[in-house]
Amino acid sequence: MDVLKQHIIVSGLSGGSVMKAYVISMTSATERRRFQKSQLTRLSIEHEICDAVTVKTISSNEIAKLKGDWERPMSNVEVACYLSHYRLWQRVLDENQPALILEDDAILSDDIRSFLSELGETPFNHISLETRRRKKLLGKEPVAQVGSVQLHRLYQDRTGAAAYLLSPMGARKLLARHKEYGAALADAQICRAYELESYQTVPALAVQADCAEHYGVEAPIATTSSILNSRLEVDYDESEVWRYKLRRIASQLRMGRRQLTLLGRAKRVHVDFKSEV
């Protein structure tokens, strides 16, 4: 039985203090930092702006060690972005407290504060708060009603690490995955970690600025992406092409097998965004 469902059956949802938010942001992103401070202060969420790992703050040896771990070579910027999340996973585990982890272009629904409060001390590994114009494989029936928001088991996501809740147990599982399989894009690492008991808020309570317009929200900050631009700089070693192709094929087969094992229990759906912001 899911840990979350078991807790709800035994003790129900109980109110509690709102967990702290950590915002990953480059020191040069003054507009985004200002926006997040304003947004989180307005929502009465305790927060800390965390300096993002950058190519300049990590060694070339560390980049070289990690950039070939995933299904394609990662750019230096993508490795740095991954390490920004990785270090917060380590912090969540070390401090033994669940946290709200945000990228600095995450736009939050006004309902996030009440959701976090009503979630209280309910146990979880990982809860995705965002939606990003791609279908997610969700359990057909909600496992909990938290205020106006439902929680569904999230069996397969495809993208998105801009807004999620992570518990110490969830952090432990992600760090163990890194140790065994190496680095990946941050969202890919989370999405492929089937050992996580992941949940999705329905509707979503966050959306990234670059797709806000699709959900009827005006983006309050610039939506340019240094990560997308950095992919043009990746040099492919022709001798390694088949290794990456085999990894992608294995990943696709694993996703297909997961969907087959969940026939009748899960469905692929677009998650709407609760846009009262």
For this entry, give a set of tags.
Spore Coat Polysaccharide Biosynthesis Protein SpsA, Chain A, 9 helices, ten-stranded mixed sheet, two-stranded antiparallel ribbon, 277 residues, alpha+beta
Description of the structure:
By secondary structure, this protein is an alpha+beta fold. The protein has one domain: Spore Coat Polysaccharide Biosynthesis Protein SpsA, Chain A (Alpha-Beta Complex). The chain contains 9 helices and 12 strands. It has helices at 3-11, 30-42, 60-66, 76-95, 112-119, 168-181, 186-191, 226-230, 241-261, and strands at residues 21-25, 47-51, 99-103, 106-108, 126-128, 136-139, 144-146, 149-156, 163-166, 198-202, 206-208, 266-269. Strands 1, 2, 3, 5, 6, 7, 8, 9, 10 and 12 form a 10-stranded mixed sheet that branches. It has a two-stranded antiparallel ribbon with strand order 4-11. Helix 4 packs across helix 6 (168-181). The longest helix is centred in the last third of the chain and has 21 residues, at 241-261. The model is unreliable at 6-16 (pLDDT under 50).
